[in-house]
Amino acid sequence: MEMLVDQFAAYLADALGCSQVISISSSGGGHTHVARGESAAALERSILIGRFEPRSFTDVLLSEIHRALEHAPAGLLLVRSGPRIASPLELQRFLSEHQFAVPFTGWTDDQLLLAVLLNNRSRRLRPQPADFRVVAFMPTFNEADIISQSLRYLIAQGIEIYVLDNWSNDGTAEQVEGFLGHGVIGLERFPQSGPVATYEWRRILSRLEELARTIPADWFMLHDADERRYAPWTGVSLKRGLYHVDCSGFNCVDHVVVHHWPTRARFDPSASLESQLRFYTFSDHPGHFHQRRAWKNPHRDVSIAPSAGHDVRFPGRLVYPFKFLLRHYPIRSQEHGERKVFAERMGRWNPDERSLGWHRQYDGMPPGTSFLRDPATLENAAGRAFDEQYLIQRLSGIGVFGAPPSWATGPRERFDSVPVS
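Predicted structure:
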């Protein structure tokens, strides 16, 4: 069985609090070996994984797998494509017709079909109630070229926004003012005392922690202006996706980062961001290993400043096993990269924060650096179906990172107290 699938099964076991991965199989001739000899209690602590030919899907086999999923939290089925089941959509339809909870299907790297199955009693997606409220905290500094587009995107997703602007001088805050009362619930110039010589990221995050204690929302997000977030289910809004996570008993969402690169010298603010920066790579930057930047309001203190905004922590945190997608557009053109990196960022880093290892993403870039990439070396977002082709990578980050950084925390790690900001 291919390595990525095994790693994905181990990842799900860790995220769902399981102690083992059980291989399931069919011996052919109508005889089955689905979790043979495993008790209900053992299955409750197990992830199932099996590899089958389409012709082996007899009613008996399907019934046994279904019965095992009365207890097991999740399972992975690998199927060789053929005339009977030739695509992820056909596999999903086939399994759904047999009463399986099958939220995700796609391809493995060696072009086997893969289905993610959940416990038979798992929550199904449903519309969120009218009073379900999600607020995104958006720190900004000189994002006038995209800020209006980014606000409109979040508003269309049902998300309200509180902007903390670090005294932009390019008209960013003035654009945000036009959205006040129309999706933007607050605009704060930070710090209130006026512009400062350095970018005070820790202070901004500490202010965000304060706001999260006072704003009466169900969920919060830390969301940069140069991002787009997506729920992992095709066609499901961000707000509805967070409601489903909530109903499923989890209170924190992680993200996989896809980094979009500029391929031309200029960016047109009047055209859509997504249409101009279609080419991407998965980001394996160590700082992107955790992007736990969406969380349910615990009605108590949370800590996100000590991790530089990467890993929100609070007692009782339980990270949802399937990651949401974060598309990142930090550099929009050669001109924008030169201005942002060399004129607006490098000279404003806080030295105390740099000593902690923060703000290292532009190290080693001398003036004259080209920020443009050759499209032939990148993936095209308008090309093959991303959700299906990179199912394991986008849901887990498996295959993106070689190893976790030293500061990584487990998805079920307990925090008896909130780390001090």
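Summary: The first strand starts at residue 20 and ends at 28.
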